[in-house]
Amino acid sequence: METPNYAPFTTSDTFMKPLTQLILLLYPLITLLAANPIHAVDIDPAYKPLVKRLQMDGIDEEYLQGLFSRPELKLMPKAVAMSLVRRESELNYAQFLEKDSVDRGVSYLKAHRSTLEKMESHFNISAPLVVAILCIESACGTYTGKFETVNILVTQALCLEPGIYQQIYDQIPSEERLNLTPQEIKEGLMKRRIRSYRELKALLAYARDHDIDPFSLTGSIEGAIGLPQFLPSNITRYGFDGDGDGQIDVFQHEDAIPSIASYLKAHKWEDNNNYRRKKKILLKYNHSGYYATTVLELAETLASYWHYL
Question: Which domain holds residue 221?
Fold first, then answer.
């Protein structure tokens, strides 16, 4: 049979012209989207000053655009307002010296004996002290806080923006406003604003480096997270990879236990320090005399069990 003098029929010939026409039609739209990413317009204007500042401090623009356009992001003025009127003297620290709390601590000493002994050997910090801190901070890891950490820190970082400040002020109970001058309120918010920006940067870096969704992290009303209730910047400074997996996870006992010891050691803790020196170091962990006193009392009680378990 004679070979035809024309090219054989192909599927590509059928679709190439319509495809080319479609690309030409869509090209202006593609160019427009490239120049103006759709997620950029999704950010609430209230967050833009903070996003700009974070970007100037070196946090990736695309990461920030994605984070601040998430529907989970929300302001928490009521929580920030309540933190302003929260008084350590009104907290029930006596509960941590009661039988249930002591029993929880003793059970924790038993359950995590291997990790605690390894920590003692490495840091020369007593297990009862570390467990006393865990008992008070997170009920030995059973309660690490309910507040969305990103949202708490974002609200605090923006707390002096006029509209957000007013939302926070309106959430302060009227009886509490009588005990606080406007200047005292602003000073309290200023402290939180300065600290929370630093902690927000640390949190975002921690979440990025450990491949964690920032919105999955919950913690205290002040932004502390994990079993030891570390502020995010303290994870970077003092966190310790106790299980050797290459990650520092303060929600896991194997990392939380040595991380507390690492913090104490960095602040020159020695078990033979005098009472005043020990209390001074604990006040760096939590700025409350009631807290520091209770930790030392509980640690002493737990020490009477530790070597007999």
Answer: 77-85+92-306
